UniProtKB/TrEMBL annotation:
Catalytic reaction equation(s): Hydrolyzes the link between N-acetylmuramoyl residues and L-amino acid residues in certain cell-wall glycopeptides
GO molecular function terms noted in the UniProt entry: N-acetylmuramoyl-L-alanine amidase activity
Record's protein name: N-acetylmuramoyl-L-alanine amidase
Top EC class, one word: hydrolase
MurNAc-LAA domain residues: 112-251
Source species: Chondromyces crocatus
CDD domains, A to Z: MurNAc-LAA
Length: 254
């Protein structure tokens, strides 16, 4: 285990978070919470979370990309377009919380705990794929398989994973004709057969179980994907476009 104790990034994460949420709920009865989990981080592997997996063609580590994309998603959730969707649902407040905002590696349990303590309604974990064969391409999402336990709302998690996938792929295809869907899959189909961060966090402010999904944006070991999403002159613009599409999908699903 790391010697560095994980401190949740948001002032509404960790100790005191529940009291803050309850107090705010009294003043604002119809609010929601979205937790964004930038995968990996730090330099030491923790239970349920490796420090890093993929490294892009342009030598950018996955842990850096996940934080950049998570920060972009948080910004897009605050955009006028997305806020209009929230207002149409009569939500008086939608709070967005990141499980980390710096180069640290919370354990899988710590990441889920941020969603639990804040009564999150949606938890989305962001990752990137890598593969030995540089031709590998595509976007995929994952949800917790019921057979893996810690899962009471599999159908709802699948629906969220499918909505996020559809939005991300459509946005990528605007600037990359080779973008494609690799489908929404149960975590039992992954290399490790189970993904810790997709465990049920608990009941959200909606009164229903928090829905969880993981987005694998693309294979950054592919040169074309790297150019469009990581290193090319329009990479930042493309990143924000993809995250705006995902933000809209989350808002509609909330």
């Amino acid at each position: 285990m790391s010697d560095t104790r994980f401190v949740p990034a948001s002032p509404t994460s960790g100790e005191g978070a529940t009291e803050h949420v309850h107090a705010t709920t009294q003043a604002c009865p119809d609010r929601r919470v979205i937790v964004i989990d930038p995968g990996h981080g730090g330099t030491v592997d923790e239970d349920g979370s490796k420090a890093n997996n993929a490294t892009s063609v342009s030598k950018v580590r996955e842990k850096v990309l996940t934080l950049q994309y998570a920060q972009s998603l948080k910004q897009q959730l605050a955009s006028a377009e997305v806020q209009a969707i929230f207002r149409s649902k009569n939500y008086c407040e939608v709070k967005t919380i990141l499980t980390r905002e710096t180069d640290v590696n919370p354990s899988g349990a710590d990441r889920v705990a941020v969603a639990t303590s804040n009564k999150a309604d949606i938890l989305l974990s962001i990752h990137f794929n890598g593969f030995d064969d540089p031709r590998a391409r595509g976007t995929e999402t994952f949800y917790k398989a019921k057979q893996n336990g810690h899962q009471t709302n599999e159908a709802e998690d699948l629906a969220l994973a499918e909505a996020v996938l559809e939005a991300a792929v459509a946005a990528i295809k605007v600037f990359d004709s080779k973008g494609r869907s690799r489908e929404a899959k149960a975590d039992k189909d992954t290399q490790h057969k189970s993904i810790w961060v997709l465990r049920d966090p608990g009941i959200g402010l909606s009164g229903k179980m928090c829905r969880s999904a993981m987005l694998e944006v693309e294979f950054v070991t592919n040169a074309v994907a790297d150019h469009h999403l990581v290193s090319g002159p329009k990479a930042t613009q493309n990143r924000d476009a993809v995250m705006l599409a995902v933000a809209k999908a989350l808002a509609k699903a909330l």
